[in-house]
Each structure stands twice: as structure tokens, then as C-alpha cells.
Amino acid sequence: MPINIPKNLPAGEHLREEKIFVMEEDRAKTQQIRPLNILIFNLMPEKEKTELQLLRLLGNTPLQVNITFLNTATHESRNVSKSHLQLFYSTFKEIRHRRFDGMIITGAPVEKMAFEEVNYWQEISEIMDWSKKNVTSVMHICWGAQAALYHHYDIGKFELPEKCSGVYSHVITDLTVDLVRGFSDLFTAPHSRYTSVSIDEVRNHPDLRLLSYSEEAGVFIVQSKDNKNIMITGHLEYDATTLADEYSRDVAKGLNIAVPVNYFPNDNPSHEPMNTWRAHTHLLFSNWLNYYVYQETPYEWDFAEDHIEFHI
Questions:
Q1: CA distance 28 to 35
Q2: Is 164 among the catalytic positions?
Q3: Active site residue 272
Q4: Would residue 142 show up in a list of annotated catalytic residues for this protein?
Q5: Which residue is catalytic, options 140, 237, 246, 280?
Q6: How many angstroms separate the Cα of 161 from the Cα of each of 22, 112, 152, 197?
Q7: Looking at the chain, which terminus has fewer C-beta neighbours within 10 angstroms, N or C?
Q8: What is the mean pLDDT of each run of 10 residues along the chain (312 residues)?
Q9: What are phi and psi of 82, to 5 degrees?
Q10: Which residues are paired to 193 by β-bridges?
Q11: Can you say which residues are annotated as belonging to the binding site for substrate?
Q12: Using CA atoms, how far apart are residues 114 and 71, in angstroms rounded to an integer?
């Protein structure tokens, strides 16, 4: 089934080239079905790259998905044109009356700052509170995961001695959990962050379940026991070259940065890296959409305040 995207979204052309079935809004409105409505709160600086990465994953399932992009109202994005945001993004004020089957909160380049120092922290806190009643399941990525652990479960973060950057091996703690159904006992995933969270705090929290971790990179996948929130501290959505692009950017800035671990062949940045995590990425997003969104979302969202109903 197709993924429904805003008309003329630049990512659409790339998705079609990759043979991913996309449908623009005008045609989607003629379909006599109730698609899943997914909200993407995109906090990444290079928004168009993140759009493509996430849409590629959401569009590779049998489910028809409508996408709404959300941007901050209290922070001005500097790495994307205002016209792109005006055409394809909404603010919280514009969508807060709606309900969504699923939501993704991405990472953000603010992890060294205390949460309360982030100029849109009050806004994202309000959105996370709103999601409790208005979204069936929320997936949080990297800084978004740390923000959720702090806001919902009072688990803070700490700064690492050096950046955690590379592709690390991970284990699964319980292969019977639907989110990791089909995963291998050992799998790889990229990380790119300066901060982390305590694995003991996660393990000991009564409302959380640690599903996956790395001996080197620490906590990876955390699930709330009510299945409402999923926190992923790494970047499974990354393309093969994303870590290379970040490394080149940091070197160009003159930062004392190490070569990403287990990433470049022979640890040589002049060699082309390979994507060794793609299959598990698709599996995780498919499991999330199926078991935590599609099978859990209400048959009808009934809005008493504005009498809008959606039907599957």
C-alpha cells in the first residue's frame, strides 16, 4: 500500500526512484479506506534528509499511511528554507485538535544542553503531554528518546567522555516482544551522540522495559510497559553515508573527533561505508506500525469537541 505525502514534497521524487509506492494528497482523498495518520515532529537540522529516511521506512509496509510534518513554533530552523516549512509543515497550534495513530519525535542537535535550556523545551513538553491522550503510540529517536525518558520517566542524561559515533553490536533482552519480533540475536545499529542514559535506571524503572542494549554504546531500545512510548537512542533510520557526512562536517569544523567505530572498511574514511543495519531498521518500523499502531489504534477516533470521526 502507498504512503500518502504532501503534493510536490521533494522527497517524493527520490522515493519513486527507489520504487516505493507513494500517493499525493489529492489522489489519497479519493480512497475509500481509513489510512493510518502519522505525525512526524522533525527536529533534525537537515529536515529534507530526515524526511526521506523516515518516509522510506514508513512506506515499506502493507499499510496505507498519511503523513503530517510538525515543526517548532518557538524555534526558527536555519538549515531549511522557510518556503519548505510553510508548504509542508504545520505547527502544534494547527494540529492540536486532531488525533493521530502514531507519532515520531526525531533527534535534535541540542544534546549537550540541559533540557530546560533548549528554547523549545516548553513546547516539546506540551506536545509530549498532549500525545498521552491524542496519539496511540509514539516513537522517540536519539535526543527525542532522551527527552521522553526525562519528561515522562524522570531519567536524566549524562555527557560522555567522547562522542559515541559508529556502528555497534546489540543484543535483545526478550525476543518474544512484538517490537523486536524477527530480530537476530545479535544485530548492528548506528549511534551518533555526545550523551547517554543510565542502563541501571532504565532497568530498574517500574514503567519501562529495556529491549536492547550494546556493551559499547549502552541503552538502545526502551519500551514503556503500556506500549505507549518507544525510545531508540541510536539512528536506525540513517543512510549508509550519514555518519560519514557527519564525520566530514565535524572535521571541517576543526573538531577533535574520532573516526566512527566499526563503520568505514578498515577504519579508513576514504573507503565507502556499507549499510549493515537496513534489514533490522525496516523490521522495527514495520513491527511498530503493525503491532503498536495499526492493531492498537481505535477503530474510530471520535472527537466530541468538533464531531470529526475517522473510520477504518
A1: 9
A2: no
A3: no
A4: yes
A5: 237
A6: 43, 12, 26, 13
A7: C
A8: 66 67 51 78 93 91 88 86 89 96 96 96 98 97 98 98 97 96 96 97 98 98 97 97 96 93 96 96 95 82 39 30
A9: -65, -35
A10: 164
A11: 163, 192, 249
A12: 21
Task: Sketch out the chain's domains with CATH numbers.
Answer: 3-235+277-303 (3.40.50.880)
End-to-end CA distance of the chain: 15
Give the torsion through C-alpha atoms of 140, 128, 173, 110, to 10 deg: 50
Report yes or no: 230 and 222 within 8 Å, Cβ to Cβ: yes
Residue 244, C-alpha cell as written in the block: 560519514
> Which residue carries 542514559 as its cell?
197
Pairing assessment for the beta strands 158-172 and 208-214 based on DSSP bridges: antiparallel
Q: Which of 142, 191, 205, 246 is catalytic?
A: 142
169: enclosing H helix or E strand: strand 158-172
Which residue of the set 152, 170, 235, 280 is catalytic?
A: 235
Helix (H) or strand (E) holding 136: strand 135-141
Binding-site positions? 163, 192, 249
